[in-house]
Amino acid sequence: MDQAPKELFVGVINPYALTEALTGRKFDWKDAKSYQILEETLETNYAELFDIKFGSPLYAGLELTKDNTVKALRPEDIKIRTTDKLQSADFSGVRKLSDLSNTGIKDLNTVTVKNARLDKGDVKVILNVPNLNNTVNNRLLSPSIRNIVFGAAISDGWTPAGTSWSDRGNFFSDVTEYNDPIQGAVANCYFIAAISAVAWSSPYTIEHKVRATGTGETDRTNAIQFFTKGGGKDAATRLVEVTDNTIINSTGNPVYCRSNDAGEIWPAVYEKAFAKWITNVNNDKPDISKTAYGDPAKAVAQITDKTPYYYYTSTRNALDLFGVVRENSMSCKTINPMVAWTYGSGKDYSGSNIVGNHAYTVLGWSTFNNKNYIILRNPWGVTEPNGLNSYQGLISFFDGSFWRPINMIGNDGVFALEISAFKYYFEALAVTK
Question: What Cα–Cα distance (Å) separates residue 6 from each residue in 13, 172, 198, 316?
Answer without folding.
Answer: 23, 35, 23, 21
